[in-house]
Amino acid sequence: MIDSEDELLISTSNRKRPGRPKNEVWQHFNTIPADSTNGKKDLHSGAACKFCKQKWSRGKTSEMIAHLALQCPKPPPPEVRALYLEILNNGSFDDNDDDNSSKRSKPYKQSKITNHVERLTVTDDKQRRCSRALTKFFVTCGVPLWIVENPFFIDYSKELCPGFQVPKRTILSTTMINVETATVIAEMKKKLSNETNLTLGLDGWTSPAGQSLYIFLIMISDGKEYIHSLKNFSKNSHTGEFLKNEIIKVIEEVGAEKFCSIVSDHASNVVLAKNLVSTKYPHIFPIRCIAHHINLLSSDIIKLNWATNIITCCKKIVTFFKQSHAGGAILQQKIVENMIKGGGLKKYVITRWTTAYDCTDSIIRCKNALKQILENESQLLNLEIISILRKQNFFKNVKDLRTILLPIKKAIINLEHKSTTLADCFINLVIMATAIKELSQTSNQNFSKECQNVFDKRWKEFNFDYYLLAYFLHPKYRDTGLQINTFRIICEKALSIWKLLGGREKSANELIAQISNYSLKSKPYDFEFVTGIHTVKNWWLMCKQQNNHIQKLALLMASIVPSNASCERYFSILGWYMNKRRTSLNCSLLQNMLQMHAYYVSNISNEIKHAYKELSSRSMGVIHKVGYPLLSRSRILSDTNMLT
Question: What average pLDDT score do residues 43-55 get?
């Protein structure tokens, strides 16, 4: 007598059934007998994973293979997962139990003469290539998957290629995306196998559905990024210990020896997690996101009373003209008449970096338009807006605040790119520090002093020694503009890092000697660095010698990615995916789509086959490379006392 559900599953799985044999993947699943009570003739057995016990009312080969290869929360043995990841990558499985591949007899139809004008069939290879291109289109463009079943989309596809079989939505969201994800993962592993000095970025986000999602992003110094995983931690307590364990899982899966840093914001639990990981792996440095840190500086300034009052007034003006139809229309008309460039009024959003500057700048740009409305169309304004615009020093104060926020905005924009290095952090911080020191030129002396106090407080929290060492080891700059006493600081930081990398006393002494020769431009460090021809990496690889410790250190410092802004960009993409009409996307599907998106963008030159062969990531607004006109100046720190 069968007493349990497990015994029932085993007994039914051992029962022989007529027809073609099942795929070998079924050996890792228990068979659930089909429900014959619903009166349907076309019955299919269900499946239950032997590892995680997840069940399906209908076991489909493609979904079961994808589950073992990508999704099983209690992973099967590594050899099993590797086998089915390879099978999924190659597409070498029989998908005969899927709706889209069922072969049913079709009634005979008389051939039409139009059949001889265009071919109504395509080769299997073309069907596969078109399906891959379709998958890329839906994922990278954020098009809802149900569009694939829209009659107009089907008609459009048939007009382009009558023989192409448009897949069903369920096949697109499962088989096609799973197969493409397996290909992306295989390519990602192949590329990462040859890389060293990787940076791991992580950040958390609350989705529109209320889920706590964390991104683990692998960043390479050349600007390429790969999503390792997207994890739902809604049921977990986000303690430092928990995050540490999750970070270590990611690091050890890729290879701990390949990483050199972890970058994130400065939330207390994340800081603790990074420090715990660094304790276990001393060669992995905890780095604070430079863009996020500078944004905190901007927030601190906005919280000062004088700035808060000005921003509040600006927000009231912007809100009024955004909500008033008549006022907004007149303002737009005045903007056109006065040929004001840059658009209309901009909102200030706390969570959007640089919007404080954008808000104040828009008020100054629209100054003439606002004054004309105040003089000629005051009946459209309420008393509060009239009172603000008539204040004697309102526009002057807004202009002063804009002057203060401008260097902060420039620093954030320059440092949130994928190609940002520690040397860039040093240069932009010095430029920003110089600008803030010159705030005494503004009319509000007390506020200028408060800003400088805020900056001094935040300055102590920067990873400044890392930035200074990276600047020195950049062959374009070396010790240009640095004060004499900074050389000792550089050597001390280099020795502390070298010790964490496992260096001994002998190699440490050799390293200091090499740093000295590098500073003096002695051989083999006498090559000139030519911008546009050399990169930091290939320049250092030219410098060959025995026990080349400085080369190892320089390549390490040049490889650290100090900005975690890419995680914020991917959260924006997730928000793009999870709109009001796509609330049913689960975390596993979101991870697959995000992995594909990141890989396609990072390798866009290889993924675009036909359109815009000269297309680059910059053209798509994804990878931004900004030239720094101030980097070529020889005098950087000579006028400041930041390092004394």
Answer: 85
Q: What is the pLDDT of residues 111-133, one digit of tens each?
A: 665 555 566 677 888 888 888 88
Contact 78/64 with Cβ under 8 angstroms? Answer: no
Sign of CA dihedral 473, 479, 481, 487: positive
Pairwise CA distance, residues 410 & 630, whole Å: 12
**Taking every pair of C-alpha atoms in the chain, what is the biggest distance, in angstroms?**
93
Q: Reply yes or no on whether the pLDDT at 477 is more than 80.
A: yes
Beta strand ranges found along 268-427 (DSSP E): 285-288
One-letter amino acid at 644 equals T
Q: List pLDDT tens digits, range 609-627.
A: 666 554 444 444 433 332 2
DSSP state of 34: P
How many residues in total does the chain contain?
644
Rounded Cα distance between 366 and 109, Å, is: 69
Q: Cα–Cα distance between 494 and 509 in angstroms, integer?
A: 11
- Give the separation between CA 406 and CA 396, rounded to whole angstroms: 15
Point out which residues pair with 259 in neighbouring strands.
198
DSSP state of 350: T
* Residue 232 parent element (H or E): strand 225-232
Amino acid at residue number 335: I
> What is the DSSP secondary structure assignment for residue 125, as one 8-state letter?
H
CATH architecture of 181-289+564-627: 2-Layer Sandwich (3.30)
**Residue 354, C-beta contacts closer than 8 angstroms, at least 6 positions apart:** 298, 408, 409, 412, 413
Residues 6+ apart with CB under 8 A from 202: 214, 215, 216, 217, 243, 247, 262, 264, 270, 564, 567
Look at residue 434 in the predicted model and tell me its pLDDT.
82
* Cis ω before 77 (30° cut-off from 0): no
Domains of the chain, by residue range, sit at 28-34+42-90, 181-289+564-627, 295-416, 464-559
- For residues 164-203, one letter each, b for 16 or more C-beta atoms within 10 angstroms of the residue's C-beta and e for the rest, the string is bebbbebbbbbbbbbbbbbbbbeebeebbeebebbbbbbb
Residues 180, 140: contact at Cβ < 8 Å? no
Quote the CA–CA distance of 213 and 203 in Å, as a whole number. Answer: 8
- Measured distance CA(90)–CA(74) in Å, rounded: 24
- State the SS3 of 44-75: CCEEEECCCCCEECCCCHHHHHHHHHHHCCCC
User: Coil, strand, or helix at residue 199?
Assistant: strand
- Those residues with Cβ within 8 angstroms of residue 504's Cβ, 6 or more apart along the chain or in another chain: none
**226 sits in which H/E element:** strand 225-232
d(CA 157, CA 438): 61
Please enumerate in sequence order all residues whose Cβ is within 8 A of that of 378, keeping only pairs 6 or more positions apart, or say none. 386
Per residue in 335-369, pLDDT (tens digit) is 888 888 888 899 988 777 788 899 999 999 999 99
How distant, in Å, are the alpha carbons of 215, 302, 406 from that of 357? 29, 10, 6
Tokens of 266: 């400065």
Whole-angstrom distance, CA of residue 263 vs CA of residue 438? 31
Neighbour tally for 94: CB within 10 Å: 14
Q: Averaged over 546-569, what is the pLDDT? A: 91
Nearest alpha carbon to residue 216 among 254, 182, 186:
254
pLDDT for 511 equals 93
Say if CB 69 and CB 87 are below 8 A apart: yes
